[in-house]
Write a structure and sequence with these properties.
Layout (H helix, E strand, L loop, with lengths): L25 E5 L3 E6 L18 E7 L2 E4 L35 E3 L13 E4 L3 E4 L14 E3 L2 E7 L2 E9 L5 E10 L5 E10 L5 E7 L14 E4 L14 E4 L2 E4 L9 E4 L11 E6 L4 E7 L5 E7 L2 E12 L4 E12 L3
């Protein structure tokens, strides 16, 4: 069994700040308007080695137009941790459980072959690898599963883009080739995530996938200076804290989140067309804004927030027959807010 994750064409850069002292494989891309630093998948030395999120595309820092959009939001780091708990990096934010999730990380929420596997058998988490199933009543994203095989990772870097590829030959006839390319928009303050999942096995692959979008946006705390906008009328909803509120086509913060508070709201009212996958997050204090769109329709939409980060979490559904390929594309536009 080979647990190595080869890195091809990678450029190593120093870890950002003094927050994480360990050296992890990294790369930097730029188009002159956007600069991004990324951690690369590596089963031995990778910054993120958990079994919840896709290992590719972990962005440690992204700057555009004088603003920061992705970056550290926690103090403690554990490369194998799964929990996206509140471990903030800014002064005045509460400490908590270590975390390792940064940037627009994605999760394929349906573990492939889990139901077919017996205790001690194996199943697949796309973007992670082949995992060992313990004796448990049901799958839990918070479980730290044993990684049997992370598959074969290949990374190809260009000055303004980086391509990740994972190849898995798993149990029960499941196999795939997964590609993700992070490309900075030519001549524009933007970024594109291009995805492809080719089913090379004998079984149908079906799973939702969502992007957690750990937006830090100039290190500002979650509160009334932020607004999240969509193009459709949102059905009335409110989180249990009474912090996130729906106002027409917007979700706003009634007050600033403090210490280890977590707010979450489910957004409903979108259509089955890709045009409603159109999310804007803006900050009135610094003027930073980001627009997130995709070429696939929303299947579910959740907003999760702690004090240091706002996380719009849009889901899409992936269905791939044997021998077929499924593609999707997520675009980011960074701009000056019109608050």
């Amino acid at each position: 069994m080979n647990l190595s994750a080869p890195i091809i064409g990678a450029v190593l850069i120093p870890a950002f700040g003094a927050l994480f002292a360990a050296d992890h494989p990294q790369a930097e891309i730029s188009n002159g308007l956007v600069k991004a630093k990324l951690y690369l998948p590596d089963s031995a030395a990778g910054f993120y080695r958990g079994t919840r999120f896709d290992w590719s595309g972990v962005i440690s820092n992204l700057e555009a137009g004088g603003h920061t959009y992705f970056g550290a939001w926690f103090k403690a780091h554990d490369p194998g941790i799964l929990d996206v708990a509140f471990v903030p990096a800014l002064d005045g934010f509460a400490a908590g459980t270590p975390s390792a999730a940064l940037g627009p990380v994605e999760e394929f929420t349906n573990p492939i072959g889990y139901e077919d596997a017996s205790a001690g058998g194996a199943f697949i988490k796309i973007g992670v690898g082949v995992l060992r199933k313990p004796q448990e009543p049901e799958y839990a994203w918070s479980t730290r599963y044993e990684i049997v095989d992370p598959g074969k990772w290949t990374v190809r870097k260009q000055p303004d883009s980086i391509e990740f590829q994972q190849e898995i030959n798993g149990p029960s006839g499941y196999a795939y080739v997964y590609r993700k390319t992070i490309r900075l928009s030519p001549g524009k303050p933007g970024m594109i995530l291009e995805h492809s999942l080719k089913n090379t096995g004998r079984q149908v692959i079906e799973t939702p996938v969502y992007n957690h979008n750990f937006l830090v946006m100039d290190g500002q705390p979650s509160g009334p200076d932020f607004v999240i906008k969509v193009p459709f009328e949102i059905q009335p909803a409110r989180d249990s804290l009474g912090v996130l509120e729906v106002r027409g086509k917007e979700v706003v913060f009634a007050r600033e989140l403090v210490e280890d508070e977590r707010a979450m709201i489910t957004v409903a009212g979108f259509s089955g067309e890709p045009k409603d996958y159109d999310i804007r997050v803006e900050n009135r204090k610094t003027g930073a804004g980001v627009r997130i769109t995709a070429d696939r329709p929303l299947a579910r939409f959740v907003i999760w927030s702690v004090r240091p980060t706002r996380c719009p979490e849009p889901f899409i559904n992936v269905h791939v027959e044997p021998g077929k390929e499924f593609t999707w594309r997520i675009s980011y536009e960074f701009y000056a807010s019109s608050f």
